[in-house]
């Protein structure tokens, strides 16, 4: 939500590998039983249903960049293969006997306290040393108002190709002053709505103001006055657990949920 993939794409596009592929993958979304095959591929007959050879995403990224989002959620057994890939520049497909050479740069991101994950035995220390060459911290969008104009321009080009859409200064000021609890993802959705529902080729302050208004359901429906939704209550509980805990693992334990569920809630509620 804070724009990790956007930053990774920017790094790729400004590098010598810009002509190669940019391959993103969310490690938290990979089923643990398929992680090895998805990342490193498999040979025909390697397992039931493997009717043909399939390249893994690491090989697909050959000559370009492999972006591993939520690296801290990569299954432990798959971390060993990733380490070998980083050390020797080769992958061994499931069912293969000979490794394949791959030249791809790794950019990794995580919302997890990765140092704590190493201390807790959930993440390999040697793998962290391999990927932790240059570490960047990306704050939430509300702490980066100076990025709003650049992001707005980017989204206008992406969402309205072929149109020359501008954003008047007053509209940009409103967007820059907003707190963006949903981070970059929320900003993109607002720009998309403005393009769909707006008139002409300029985003105006009045239109932005309408789209940034808080939901009016609680004021228009007498029954809902003073009543918090379950979603709001859950969001507050997650936020409170994170604030009161030293690590995300402790927060998950205090809430009685798995670490993966906690990360899903963090993303869903824009608490990154």
Describe the structure.
With 272 residues, the protein is mostly helical. The protein folds into three domains: 4-131, P-loop containing nucleotide triphosphate hydrolases (Rossmann fold), CATH 3.40.50; 141-213, Helicase, Ruva Protein, domain 3, CATH 1.10.8; 226-268, Arc Repressor Mutant, subunit A (Orthogonal Bundle), CATH 1.10.10. Helix content is 46%, strand content 10%. It has helices spanning 4-13, 35-40, 57-60, 76-88, 114-119, 125-131, 148-159, 169-177, 183-197, 205-211, 217-220, 230-244, 248-255, 259-268, and strands at 22-26, 41-42, 54-55, 65-69, 90-91, 100-101, 105-108, 166-167, 202-203. Helix 4 crosses helix 6 (125-131), helix 7 crosses helix 9 and helix 8 (169-177) runs parallel beside helix 10. The chain is globular, with a radius of gyration of 22 Å. The protein starts with a helix and ends with a helix. 28% of the residues are buried.
């Amino acid at each position: 939500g804070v724009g990790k993939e956007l930053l990774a794409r920017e790094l790729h596009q400004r590098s010598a590998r810009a002509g190669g592929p940019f391959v993103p993958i969310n490690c938290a979304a990979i089923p643990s039983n398929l992680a090895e095959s998805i990342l490193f591929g498999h040979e025909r007959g390697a397992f039931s249903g493997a009717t043909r050879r399939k390249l893994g995403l690491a090989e697909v990224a050959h000559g370009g960049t492999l972006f591993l989002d939520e690296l801290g959620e990569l299954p432990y057994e798959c971390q060993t293969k990733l380490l070998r890939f980083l050390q020797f520049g080769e992958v061994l497909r499931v069912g293969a006997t000979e490794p394949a050479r791959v030249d791809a740069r790794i950019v990794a991101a995580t919302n997890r306290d990765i140092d704590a994950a190493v201390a807790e035995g959930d993440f390999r220390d040697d793998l962290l040393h391999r990927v932790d060459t240059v570490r960047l911290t990306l704050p939430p969008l509300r702490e980066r108002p100076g990025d709003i104009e650049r992001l707005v321009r980017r989204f206008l080009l992406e969402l309205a190709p072929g149109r020359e859409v501008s954003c008047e200064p007053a509209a940009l000021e409103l967007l820059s002053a907003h707190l963006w609890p949903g981070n970059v993802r929320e900003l993109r959705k607002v720009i998309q709505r403005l393009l769909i529902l707006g008139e002409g080729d300029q985003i105006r302050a009045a239109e932005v103001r309408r789209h940034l208004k808080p939901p009016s359901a609680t004021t228009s429906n007498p029954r809902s006055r003073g009543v918090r939704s379950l979603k709001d209550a859950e969001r507050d509980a997650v936020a409170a657990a994170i604030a009161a805990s030293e690590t995300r693992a402790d927060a998950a334990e205090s809430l009685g949920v798995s670490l993966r569920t906690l990360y899903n809630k963090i993303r869903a509620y824009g608490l990154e």
